[in-house]
Amino acid sequence: MKSIKTSLLGAAAAAMVFTLAGCGGGGSGGGDDEAAVLRRGISAKVDTLDPHRSSAKWENIVISDMFTGLMQSAADNEPIPGVAESWETSEDGLTWTFKLKETQWSDGEPLTAEDFVYAFRRIQDPELASQYSSLLYIVKNAAEVNAGELPPEELGVRAIDDYTFEITLEEPAPYLLGLLTHYTTYPVPQHIVEQYGESWIQPENIEVNGPYKLAYWRTGDQIVSEKNPLFSEADSVCFDRVAYYELEDSAAVERKIEAGEMDINNGFDGGRVDELKKRFPGWVRTTPGLVTTYWTFNSSQEPFTDVRVRKALALALDREFIVDKVLTPGYVPAYSFVPPKMSNYNVERPEVSFMDKSREARLEDARALLQEAGYGPDNPLTFEFIYRSTDDNPKVAPVAQANWEDIAPWVNAQILKQDTKVLYARLRQADFEVADGAWIADFDDPINFLYLLESDTGQQNYGRYSNPQYDALLSKASQTRDLEERAEIFAEAEKLMLEDYPITPMWVQVTKNLVDPDITGWEENAQDNHRSRWMCRKDLEGGSDEVADASLDD
Predict the structure, then answer these.
(1) Rounded to whole angstroms, how far apart are CA atoms 100 and 255?
(2) Single pTM value for the model
(3) What is the DSSP letter of 452?
């Protein structure tokens, strides 16, 4: 099968990529060309494929097919060695030393420890303004480097030699190996980034160290990556090409499946799960996820600087009705932020105090709080709720609007649907009053949720919540090596935050995917990470493997 050369630019090359990317699959069998292409729907438009600029789950699907970090995710999402072949940890848990394999970039240049030094410094560069830099503030001096208070050379990373990389931490991190599978920790090719600047990620310039290399990218059309023959484990990669479709419209996805033009889509209309199971037998895949949908109040602007207003709106939301009547089967109402399946949190979980109250009592309390805050017939409360255009969210918004207006006739909730990409951009800029959103665990530890509300987290603390007591508790937990004691401190912090209502948890999700039963190597996992490199198709590998339907029973 002939490869598409990335250097082939212009309309003719683009047309060739588009044509080949649309070939085959869908369990239909066919020739070799058909079998070698994996077609994936990624649900939203891609803004960037730079690992240090992205903060979107759908972008990660493409990015993590192209780059490999010190660690990588196995098919079941467990961390396994990536570029690192071994590692050692100091007794105090603060220094980690990684021995690297001898690998190379897709242009044949050696990948060394200096590439990791460059990457870790780059994501903390204040001029880059990475949305996800705070995820790596556990690295010594990272926050200070990001703030411009220290030079990048003071960051706690160094190359001992070409194939030995050392990380020094601010605090012990029992979750570090899992974190090192995340795209914020991926190496990037310094020689390419410095040559091409922001355009280094374009198909004609990019070099990668992962299983696939970007060949074509046109927003609103599709993205295509081709197998990287210099990937260190290229012999184990099944598909020659992966095409990614930025489809937000579920009807368009279903038409592609019916036409045999789609193998995987990372979502579906949960209210139609029974219909979809009949229409596409074996395609519906769900499993309990480390995913919480939570709505954020902008604590930095009126009227949401007042905790009484925030709590009143949280009280009024009928989570039970939404989950039972609107959402995908398997979702559960959320009264805490950290999902129930999260590891390293084996304590009695904190929940909001109104959880056991009746709907009528909640509305009565909400009305009283707003009246206490000065609202009523002569001073109505009017606000806007923005929500994502994808998944079940458009069906939930009118219910929420009605819930809020049930408080009193003088509560006026306006709702506005936003393109998912646009909504998250507004969240990061704190350009909203009340907003929909969700968080999928980057790694399996409570800090990955709780850090989002720290005052120094930055853009991902969407409502700009700030509570010194909360910050102090998370800081205390971060210095605690005993996991049980650490969990107790986390619980104290979460309880404090929940009663401050910077957010209101709404529901804990199941993962939702549509997967052709002929695709092998797909394994359900709570973080919903599925790398293309582990997948194949039955007719490509002899057709003997069976793929279990992991859907939850209704």
Answers:
(1) 45
(2) 0.80
(3) G
